[in-house]
User: Fold this.
Amino acid sequence: MADHTLAAQVMQRIETLASFSEEPDRLTRRYGTDALREAYAVLEGWMQAAGMTTRRDNLGNRIGRYEAAQPGAKTLLLGSHVDSVRDAGKYDGPLGVLIALAAVERLHASGKRLPFAIEVVAFADEEGLRFSSSFLCSKAVAGSFEPAMLRLTDGDGITVADAIRDFGGDPDAIDQDAYDADSLLGYCEVHIEQGPLLESLELPVGIVTAIQCQDRSTVSFSGMAGHAGTVPMNLRHDALCAAAEFVLAVESLGREITGLVATVGQVAALPGASNVIPGRVTLSLDVRHADDAQCRHASALLRERAEVICAAREIALDWQHLHTTPAVQCSPVLMELLAQAVDALGQPVYRLASGAGHDAAILSAITPIAMLFVRCKGGISHNPAESVTDADVGVALDVLSRSLELLAEKGAAL
Ligand SMILES: [Zn+2]
Assistant:
């Protein structure tokens, strides 16, 4: 099938998958729902039409396998997720599955087999909307699914274990679904960028270098609540003014350090009345950088800054560090293949870090990973306004196809 026809088919299939929703007027597709079941039924048909055998694991992940030229060869994993957030866009997840599927379809149409097998994995839970979990399904594939996760419950009190049973799997057999790391060549995921960088640079695709380190803390400022009319300005210990100074310090450090993003996304001021000086403020701090040390360093600098602000204002500071998720580096070998493919297509090679988490980060525990980002309009995602162009989908598909050929050419080096 010609390139533009395959890209157009990906776009049509995006629309088809988007029609499977739990809600009539917007796209919401949580783990284990009928909407996800219906999406999988259609997807399996497409996989089979592209010359793949299909199977499911206990979590319900759908896997299409395109055999290698020779039996006993290793397997390259491609894919992304098909669950969604509430009131989602159409492309976050499904685009990566459908471009992978189109790349296999192209091989199948030309009767080509590669020196490695390809498995396209469509993960059933990445967003974690139903159980406030994260990466349940890629954890099963990577062998890092913890039994305690089975006891998480959704808004209706249904446990993960029951949802897995209801979805046709056996929660006691999840450890059998983990891939043997020795059988894998790597995992490559195509995904919308979910940020505005590629659009600002007028580039269709970008090669991901790393999935950023994320460091999260809860910071509380305790001053003295008081009457807004009777306490003079020079005698106040206003917790919100200290917090405001800190928020601006977060922004300025984020601008100062290259590659750093730092965000205060939640602020709660107590007692929260228009005529009362705020006595206590609690806020969230999210710091990210592609380099672990830089990320931790930035968080430490901000803590020092908060201490200085609080000392000057006679405010008590309480800093609760929540967690640090280390950065995951993409495979230099796979990144180079993607770069060669981008270059061969006459496109500029651009590398960027991923600010968002992805299934690829979980799979990095068992196999080298790579990601290709596709420009999305306005950098908007997790929103029905998510949008990508046919032309960019065509470029991403060609890059993936060319990368597969390049990987095949490495032949004996595999
Ligand atoms: Zn996603």
